[in-house]
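ok trying again, last paste got cut off:
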Amino acid sequence: MSAEVDAVVVGSGPNGLAAAVTLARAGLSVQVFEAQPTIGGGARTLDLGVAPGITHDVCSAVHPLAIASPFFVDFDLRARGMELTTPEISYAQPLDGKPAALAFRDLETTVDHLGEAGPEWRRFFAPLLDRIDDSVWLSLGDKRSVPETLRDMPGIANVVKFGLRLLSQAGPAWNIPLSHESTQALFTGVAAHAIGGLPAMGTSATATMLSTLAHAVGWPSPVGGSQAIIDELIADLEAHGGSVTANARIDHVSDLPAAGAYLLDTSALNAAQIFSGLLPSQIDRSLRRFKHGNAAAKVDFVLDGPVPWADPEVRRAGTIHVGGTRAQMAAAEAQVMDGRMPADPVCLVSDPTVFDPSREVGGLRPLWAYAHVPFDCPLDPTEYITGQIERFAPGFRDTVVASNSIPASQMAAHNQNYIGGDIATGVVSFYRMMARPRLSWDNYSLGVPGAFLCSSATPPAPGVHGMNGWFAARRALKTRFGIDQAPSLAPGD
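nice, full thing came through this time. structure:
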């Protein structure tokens, strides 16, 4: 059968669109199919009907990698006119009965704020800021090719520095380099983004990279919400002849037009289902057995004022990690890993109106909040999250006008990739960053000519950075279309 289109992409999340843009930029005809009625996967901003005119980011809200990842550096959102706002305080860690620990965009301001704990924070991060691209490439490479950073001695030295710091926070001696309660909690709050064991290699790698970026580029957010990133990707795709079709659930490859390449921005399980009966048996089993990670449960609040944090400085932060001390967060995450719901779960909170006044409508404002819970947990997270915020912001309940909750067991209803609330699309561990979703030299190939997986279930890791889609698309260009050179993604090209 002759191809009706050069390439088909299933799924319109950041990785699916990154793949589609790369393919279209190479001169190929590209069609994207999305099961949901709205485009964008984990980077959508929607009116959930909670309050008139109030929009919420349905998954991701803060985006350091949208300006730091190699894909987005080339794509250059700012040059396209997208406005990003970067809070002076990247993230905050409230502590019981004490001033919060704060990570400012400026490293030296952070050091001054931390007082006697400041020097150890400087020792940990200052050496990594000399050549930030080395750390980014090490973290966001495809785990198969040699990163640019390893091709000169300064780069190799910086990778060693990064690796030693990562290792120091991945084992039982993690309290030695960060010996104060404030620095321990500040680092651990970031590590918890990976929703895994504390300490562990996967969570330490996540924290080392994201914390370094907080002092290098900050943790920015698009004005108006995450959807702005998606809108720019769609505009570029359409400008280069591609198209996106929403409300188009794909159950099997036979539902798709004939194409030279198929790229799936789906979970490993969904990929196996879409190519059911066509995959080599070993690959089919590996995809179906790829272990899910722990889960997130979401509450979208509407408030009539800012969160009344006990430490007013927290109000200036773009992201707040709510969980208390390092020991308290580690204990909560351990319970989640054991399949038990912690009474005081780790929560991630963002009040976008603090740095983007356009999000306030009629005196009301959105509040974005996640709690870490066991996989497929059916519990309503509202009271758990409300209680944790109230713990550090007495009077928070009085600011809540309305809310909408999504238990982990229902997360897949608005994003098919988030099975059981696993927003990382598979467990995040050091091994699974390398063998994601299976142990193979080519983690993107599905073992069928022209079939590729391009989602967060592949290397390098979850996140709104487009690298998974970019790597998969480059392999498709080379193996299916004989195009060795990746196309420029720059505006105007």
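cool. The longest helix spans residues 153-168. The chain is about 35% helix and 15% strand.
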